[in-house]
Design goal:
The structure is a homodimer. By secondary structure, the first copy, chain A, is an alpha/beta fold. The first copy, chain A, contains 13 helices and twelve strands. Chain A folds into two domains: 2-146 and 309-324, Rossmann fold (3-Layer(aba) Sandwich), CATH 3.40.50.720; 155-305, 2-Layer Sandwich (Dihydrodipicolinate Reductase, domain 2). Chain A is 41% helix and 22% strand. Strand 12 of chain A pairs antiparallel with strand 12 of chain B, so a sheet runs across the interface.
Chain lengths: 330, 330
Amino acid sequence: MIRIAIFGFGAVGQGVAEILMQRERIERWIGRYEVVAVADSRGSLCSEDGISLKEAIEVKKRGSLPEGKSVMEIIESMDFDVAIEATPTNIETGEPGLSHIRACLNKGSHVITSNKGPLVVAYKELAELAKRKNVKLAFEATVGGAMPLIKLAKRDLAGNEIISIKGILNGTCNYILSRMEQERLSYQQILAEAKELKIVEANTSYDVEGIDSAAKLVILANAVMEMDATFNDVEIVGITSITPEAFEIAMEKGYTIRLIAEASRDGLRVSPRLLPLYHPLAVRGTLNAVLIQTDLAREVFVIGRGAGKIETASAIISDLVDIYGNDRTN
Amino acid sequence: MIRIAIFGFGAVGQGVAEILMQRERIERWIGRYEVVAVADSRGSLCSEDGISLKEAIEVKKRGSLPEGKSVMEIIESMDFDVAIEATPTNIETGEPGLSHIRACLNKGSHVITSNKGPLVVAYKELAELAKRKNVKLAFEATVGGAMPLIKLAKRDLAGNEIISIKGILNGTCNYILSRMEQERLSYQQILAEAKELKIVEANTSYDVEGIDSAAKLVILANAVMEMDATFNDVEIVGITSITPEAFEIAMEKGYTIRLIAEASRDGLRVSPRLLPLYHPLAVRGTLNAVLIQTDLAREVFVIGRGAGKIETASAIISDLVDIYGNDRTN
């Protein structure tokens, strides 16, 4: 019996809960399980025998989880085998996720996280701690949403040297730029329209200034390319000063503009770059697209949904199967 | 000590040998190994203590391997842990690969193959035999060359239901069609030019008639979608009657034409289809591109090199690491 704790119960945490409610499907992969705790910043539901996820989602929809144990109290007082850490990202302090992950690893629980903050701030410390405690720290959901980027680069391309990783890691920027390409409207017009249509969130500064992409790039560089990079190592230029005229000139020559994050031995960089219009990375809409350049397999591109409640939850579930499951290759 | 036998010593077999000669790199992944036999249809080099791959490649370059044990004699008389089966594909009989793989699995050796024939003819039998003998049958190299398609769909997307797989599985067809798109020349002109430039092989009928794509589709359907499909289940239309006029009309509307192989619950089909010019599957040149449609992660596209000596060998090496190695996720 696998005992699961879910910390953070926003879109991603609820997405995980919705998938875990499909008990028959998930038990085919990992065997029997119970969710013994669900907690957010204001409350929690806990039971050693397993809580009702349906109830947790309904309670949350009506307001917030009932007052109860805090995440740290749950970690200290309850038995669970794996924690799903899906609290909000803070890339400066890594908190509260960083303390949660540290405490879980220290007590010998596996951790699966969608939270970029702790990994940007303390990847090396956490990876070494997990190794020392002989548990897994899995974080497929932190980069590229549903795309299995980390598993692909670290495992499926085994035997290869990874030369560089580059691509589009932020769907909001890509939505804005690909609309500018198609409509030749200004950055401001597209952004305002997208906010009105609720395609992008109200506060997009993390996105459009390249900060979100840079955080993901740091995680890829450390996890896949075995670098020891921090956020300050990334040279960052956002998309806020790209004009319709820049697109005009680019497109006359058969090019478009995308915000590209790149990690190579030359360093880490996030910046708007020209791409041939037919280039596999020149995707449209909110898609993410990444090119993994290796010495044997050469170029491998992955394109998919970089965000979304169920899409991100899917990456967390794939990590869960990775830890406990029998995959389809057996 | 892992004892490896290589059967088939054309481009792929030699590519594997070249990578295995980088002993320091590969031992980091799988530990100590020796290649105890290399055989092709006309001869072999064998030694229980390990042969020199450098010598094998040099001998082969000068003509063929020295007369010696046949593949079947090697399987019967020698000890090895894993066979790399890279003999030429025959999708009607599966031979000689089918007999090789059967015999290896039966004696309890793992098999890694780049040979589509045996899997198209007898996937189910071979998969069940491997399971019964508790050994691995790995075949990443049969579909999509260097692209880790099978590992991605079967393992990285664990927890997902795979709804359909569709895409471009033949680089020769894609080269011809994407050149027709760009140059508006006839199929015959592009083909003749490509043969002259040695971009495609002299005999392309397997490619342009859609047979190669169909064979790969059968493997994907059986291995990833758990179907029980055979070659005759595939509805096949090739690319030989596509005219420049067809491209003209498609492109006026913002579309292009590609040879698409698709497996879904509606069946298996290989046929030329319209794609929006900016669609992620509308890649150019000899690239392959595949869309895996799932219920949770939604669309995941993979694009990469579908063929090539080292690229295909890379997939075989990744299978070898999969069987014996410690991947980078630990």
